[in-house]
Each structure stands twice: as C-alpha cells, then as structure tokens.
Amino acid sequence: MADPVDAAPALSLVVSTVGRPVDFDRLITSIEETVPAHLVELVVCDQSADQSCAAVLRERDPAFRWVATTSGRGASVGRNAGLEVATAPLVGFPDDNCWFPPDTLSAVVATFAADPGLSGLSGQQQTLDRRPSMLRWPSTGGPVTRTNFMKTSIMSTMFFRRDVIDRVGHFDEGMGVGSAGWYGAGEESDLLLRVLAGGGRVQYVPELVVLQDEPRDDADAAFERKMLRYGCGNGHLWRLHRLPRWLLAWYSARKVVGAVVRRVRGQRNLARADLAYLRGTWAGWTDRRPRELPVGSRS
C-alpha cells in the first residue's frame, strides 16, 4: 500500500483480475497520468496463483493510494472482496485491460459533486482509434433505464455512489466471468437494475470515455463458448428482473441479422458466436442449462 496522502480519495477503482500484468500496468499508467494522486484509490483483487498484477502494483508503488488483496475465483467474487477494503464514497470497476484517457476520472468525480442526487454514472467505451467498443453507444446522453441499459452501460463504464450499492447489495457471485455457475455475464446489469429498482438515478454521459481493445477483433473458437455463457447470463438477467419480452425479442432479432451478415462477409467465427449467444439467452431465460456447460464448469 502506498503511503497515505493528505486527503481521502474521492474514487475507488476496484479491479478483479487473473494474471494480465502487461494490460494492468497500462491501466496504472493511465491513472498516474490523468488524475491528481489524492483523487483516486486503486484496489486490485488478484486471483492468480503467481499474484502477477499485485506484484506489478507493489513494484511500481504509484503515488496514489492502492491496496492489493485476493479472493476465490470469479469477477463478482473479486469485486466484492475489493469493496471490503475500498474506502472512497464513489466506486468504479474497470476491467484489467482497459485504461483511461485524460480527464475522464476527474470528470466523473466532478459530475457526482455537481449532482448530489445522482446514484450512478455511465460513460462509453471506445478503442484507441475511437471506434465503439462492445456496444453501439448512443451519441447523446440521458437517463439509464430498464429499456436502454443494454446500449448505455457495461461494467468498465459505470460508477456508483458507494452508499447506494451498499444499500441495494453488492455483486451476485453466481453471475459473471469465472463464476461457479453457468451465468457468464449480467452481474453488472443486475447491480444497475437493482439501483434503478431502489429509486436510484443513473445518467449516461457519452463524453466520459473509457478505452479498451475491441475483443471481437480477435474472435476465435474459444470466443464462441464465451458468448454462449454470456448469453446464458443475459437470459437469466431478463428472467430475474422480469424485463420486457418485446425488448428481448428485438435484441435477439438483431443478433440473427448480425449473424447472417457476418456469415456473408466470411466472418464465420463471429457469426457462430452470435448464434451461441442467442442459444445461451434462450437457455438462461428458460432456466435450462446447455449441455455444453456441465455442472462444475466455470464461466
């Protein structure tokens, strides 16, 4: 842990990771280069056997406050463990392979300070060359709702007031990457929807940008299995929160069209991944575990 600074941090960044030290090092650099040391606290929960990311943090010993801890496997498990030691009144959960452009984190803190009634905030994720990453992000901001959260929020772009998520409950450890169950995604949306159900107000601000490489640029056979698990988590989320069936049908129809277009373009891995996601969504929504995901396998 770095020596304490004079002022308490305004924002805790909680990172759950399993051994991506090069990417994590880039994240540390982006924090060092974009915010004053007193503004942020970095909490890393390193679940790898060699504790490689925690080692990077100790070796660099950045000027901002930092804490290294560990836990059992699972992104939700790691984030909950990180929350146990995080101290700031605001909290975000960046992926270990994302990083921040100048002014993003200070703008997050300033936005919450200007609006005391704001429960949460979401920006958008882009690649280094400013292509949209993961979602087709709207160009205009506005409230995040039960019907638009799928295009205005992912984990790395969301920030919350700590007291709000303490009140609604932390991450569901049965959901998310690395979970012991078969729901390989949806934990961040589950948290967001619980905040909204509790009367919280969450705003989408597209000017707040988080950077990350586009995972679909490197799609392979393993990506298809990953998308199957993601779909299972999405279907489970829809059933759990009784989200509109028409909206699920609309998103599913878009996936079908996307799979057809990608196949025509020769992007067969991406087309198969889209179809795997659809199969997973149906499995999660009907609560019928796919045969490809046996009991005991991890997301």
Please, could you describe this protein's structure?
- With 299 residues, the protein is α/β, with parallel strands linked by helices.
- The protein has two domains: 204 residues, Spore Coat Polysaccharide Biosynthesis Protein SpsA, Chain A (Alpha-Beta Complex), CATH 3.90.550; 68 residues.
- 42% of the residues lie in helices and 16% in strands.
- The chain contains ten helices and nine strands.
- Strands 1, 2, 3, 4, 5, 6, 7, 8 and 9 form a nine-stranded mixed sheet that branches.
- Helix 1 packs parallel to helix 2, helix 8 packs parallel to helix 10 and helix 9 runs antiparallel to helix 10.
Q: TL;DR?
A:
With 299 residues, the protein is an alpha/beta fold. It has 10 helices and 9 strands. The protein is 42% helix and 16% strand.
Annotate the secondary structure layout.
Elements: E1 11-17, H1 21-34, E2 40-46, H2 52-60, E3 65-69, H3 75-85, E4 90-92, E5 98-99, H4 104-114, E6 120-126, E7 142-143, H5 149-152, E8 158-161, H6 162-168, H7 187-197, E9 202-212, H8 221-240, H9 245-264, H10 268-286
Parallel strand pairs: 1-2, 1-4, 2-3, 6-9
Antiparallel strand pairs: 4-8, 5-9, 6-8, 7-9
Helix pairs in contact: 1-2, 8-10, 9-10
